[in-house]
Specification:
With 440 residues, the chain is of the alpha+beta class. 29% of the residues lie in helices and 25% in strands. Strands 6-10-11-16-15-14-13-12 form an eight-stranded mixed beta sheet, with helices on both faces. Strand 1 and strand 2 form a beta hairpin. Helix 4 runs antiparallel to helix 6.
């Protein structure tokens, strides 16, 4: 009778019993009368010892190449000298898939060997993903996303899935991908922004969406991609953008607590970072105050009404030192730096009720209170030189009553990047899409 397969991290619970495992052959050492294998599955790595008296297993392992996929049956044993303190005395080995012996990139980097160049690793992404640290990225992402979903669902948000094929270029009208849609043109959505607001006009009150967004930005930085996953939320009956910030910071603290509970030790071991669950409320600094603080530090950016990547890093360093906090909301952006649908401040109409959220030196969120009054919205669109005809479908959402509302869009790739201390957002994506990359 064939033994039920178990994961490698369950072997310790079956000492003295026959077990069957499956996985990749990570290391192979042949010492004539005895062979040592390190086998890896999604849960860990274990040593398998095959002795000459186990003739079939000994023979079948002879042609084994690194990264071949195998099924091994044998006796689970405690062995202090083995990695992890446990091993399997192999009795049978079945090769499920034989790997080409010439690997294009290594899965295990040896000694002080430098990691393979990222562009090459991305060519062979499915092999690169076999590394423990890369697998952990997506284990962590799974728990983080579950945390956000739990927060939203537990707080009566409704999940929506907005269309990604749209009839007109969304928001600013630039940086969109054009596609052929039967006998007409269509565009890939930059965000679900317009449709989140349609949900507010539909009376949903609170919504969230997890889905793909597309940005035709000719950018080659460590923080940009042309296709990525977005987290979006929108809420009704707010008094200001401060209500939106209060909701977002609670959602983030909830999700990061889930990550800490599940993977704190593993993240510290693999990435050398402790998961810090942020205290609520987060620090908040207006754009005007931000520029003043930066000027006092001798830093002058080249953007009026916005901040550069260097300024983002420096203001976060200031906040970390002054407030002991990894997050900071930058608020009250000028109208020149924000889209037409951001609500303007009643006391100072030159600034918007908007914000960006920075985490350890990187922008991870943009949000605002939206303008929900039809006449005001039309006037602001005209002021921004928007083509009213092209966005009339959107403006119609506000003709028949719409609650005051606001929301935010968050980049989970960037969240993971900052959480784990990754240098490049491409390593926080399952498969990266950029200006020069459409494969694999």
């Amino acid at each position: 009778m064939k033994m039920e397969k178990i994961h490698i991290n369950q072997v310790k619970d079956h000492i003295g019993k026959q077990v069957t495992i499956t996985g990749f052959a990570q290391v192979f050492r042949d010492q004539k009368n005895i062979k040592f294998l390190l086998i890896r599955d999604i849960s860990g790595v274990i040593q398998v010892v095959i002795t000459k008296d186990k003739e079939d297993a000994f023979k079948n392992s002879a042609g084994l190449s690194l990264e071949s996929v195998v099924e091994i049956a044998g006796l689970a044993k405690e062995e202090k000298q083995a990695p992890g303190g446990f091993e399997i005395a192999g009795e049978s080995i079945t090769i499920l898939s034989l790997s080409n012996p010439e690997l294009p990139i290594p899965v295990v980097e040896k000694g002080q060997q430098e990691e393979t160049d990222q562009s090459i690793r991305l060519d062979w992404r499915w092999i690169d993903l076999r590394k423990e640290k890369n697998t952990l990225v997506f284990k962590v992402w799974t728990v983080m996303e579950q945390g956000f979903r739990e927060y939203w669902v537990n707080n009566n948000y409704i999940e929506i899935h907005s269309p990604k094929l749209i009839a007109t270029a969304s928001e600013s009208g630039s940086e969109v991908f054009e596609v052929k849609y039967f006998e007409r043109k269509a565009y890939l959505a930059q965000s679900p922004q317009f449709y989140k607001q349609m949900a507010m006009a539909g009376g949903f009150e609170k919504v969230f969406e997890v889905g793909p967004v597309f940005r035709a930005e000719p950018s080659f930085t460590s923080r940009h991609a042309t296709e990525f996953t977005g987290y979006d939320a929108e809420i009704s009956y707010i008094e200001s953008h401060h209500d939106v910030m209060a909701e977002e910071e609670k959602a983030i603290a909830y999700a990061l607590q889930k990550v800490k509970d599940a993977y704190d030790e593993e993240i510290l071991k693999v990435f050398g970072r402790e998961v810090v669950v942020p205290a609520v409320p987060f620090p908040k600094i207006s754009m005007k105050e931000t520029k003043e603080i930066l000027a006092g530090m001798g830093i002058k950016g080249d953007k009026d009404g916005d901040i550069s990547p260097e300024e983002e890093r420096k203001i976060c360093e200031y906040v970390k030192e002054k407030h002991g906090h990894e997050f900071v909301f930058i608020t009250e952006y000028p109208i020149s730096a924000r889209p037409f649908y951001h609500m303007r401040d009643e006391k100072n109409p030159k600034i918007t009720k908007s914000f960006d959220l920075l985490w350890n030196g990187l922008e991870v969120t943009t949000g605002a209170q939206r303008e929900h009054r039809y006449d005001v919205l039309v006037a602001q669109a005209k002021e921004k030189k928007m083509d009213i005809e092209h966005i009339q479908f959107y403006l119609d959402f506000f003709k028949y009553g719409c609650p005051p509302h606001g929301g935010y869009g968050m980049g989970p790739n960037r969240m993971i990047m900052q959480l784990l201390g990754l240098d490049n957002v491409r390593d926080a994506m399952f498969v990266y899409r950029g200006v020069n990359r459409l494969t694999p």
